[in-house]
From TrEMBL:
Lineage, broadest ranks: Bacteria, Pseudomonadati, Bacteroidota, Cytophagia, Cytophagales
The SGNH hydrolase-type esterase N-terminal domain, residue ranges: 55-199
Keywords, sorted A to Z: Hydrolase
Transmembrane segments annotated in the record for this chain: none
Protein name: SGNH/GDSL hydrolase family protein
InterPro entries referenced in this protein's UniProt entry, alphabetically: GxDLY, SGNH_hydro, SGNH_hydro_sf
Domain of life according to the entry: Bacteria
A single MF term (Gene Ontology): hydrolase activity
Occurrences of domain SGNH hydrolase-type esterase (ranges): 209-389
Amino acid sequence: MPIKITKTIIKDIRFPTGKNKNGSDAMMMGTAQGYKIALIMLLGLWSMNLDAQSITWYDPLKENNQVIHGQGWQDLGYARLPDEAQPLVREPVWNLSRNATGLLVRFTTNAKKIDASYIPLGRLQMPHMPATGVSGLDLYTKDGKGSWIWVRGNYAFGDTVSYSFVLNDNVQTSREFYLYLPLYNSVKDLRIAVEEGRDFQFIPVSPKEKPITVYGTSIAQGACASRPGMAWTSILSRKLDKPVVNLGFSGNGQLEESLIQYLSEIDSEVYILDCLPNLVREEFTEEEVKKRLIRSVKYLKEKRPSTPILLVEHAGYTDGKSNQERAQAYMRLNEWCKEAYRELLVEGLEEVYLLENEDIALTMDATVDGTHPSDLGMQQQADAVADLLREIL
């Protein structure tokens, strides 16, 4: 619903007065300077109001249609799990589900300048991840041949996160845009603005289009992409031109029954289970890891027998050659995953697939800290997943 900002009319400006020697009213000292300051203020206010008058703001949550893409359920605001999930999931999972990772707003406009802002409800940045990834917005469109174009934005971070995107090209017609929301922050009062008189239309979610549903860890949530559009799930969505629901929970993707049950509620084109990086802990023994993998797949197959399931091995630690203990930890976990996968196949479960570590093939420089992918690593993981999904789908 558009919000138009109207012009403020200033009726008069009064100046302080004093008494001269003969007792008559007179302007106090600094009259000339006062007039000059007042004139500057008046012109500034008038200019600001002319600018404001030419801008129309749109609020996605005030639309009659569902226009927040990337959600498995409707009417979530900018969250990722429904309210009824709160008592059924662990508190860290619930808190992370308030982050807007994977969510985007799609719209069409012929505007050459697009502004967007929101109020962040969490920290703006992390030691290993910049504010542009944790709290930033990200805008994409397509050229006349259907190829993706990234639109650079000027930004400011504070109590409000603000972006201004300017397109300096020859396109005059309306085109579609994807505005990705932040990966590790929660969103309040998102607004999108274009010049008044420009076409603008939100694109509602299509109920007929099944999403790719991803359940994973901090890596799936987007750590440590430099901006939201570079999370591997976002790259995957653009590569395959398919919607993706991102249920990545940093440090908390543990193949829990409650989350698997919620996954089954989403009528998906494929389920991707990418939780092994959060199972590299002493309490997750070989028996426990295999049990969680097998239980998760069987439950989803029971509820959605025709939906393919893709298990993803641990992508590895890029410092493995200098830290044998870490290398052995993820290789051991991947071997358990292979054994669980073979057991599922022996039991006759169909359309269950495995993406192996060797196929992801993260290179030495593909992470920020040995664990979390940089943009390079995100691209490598997205490429590997997309290649296999093209065969599956």
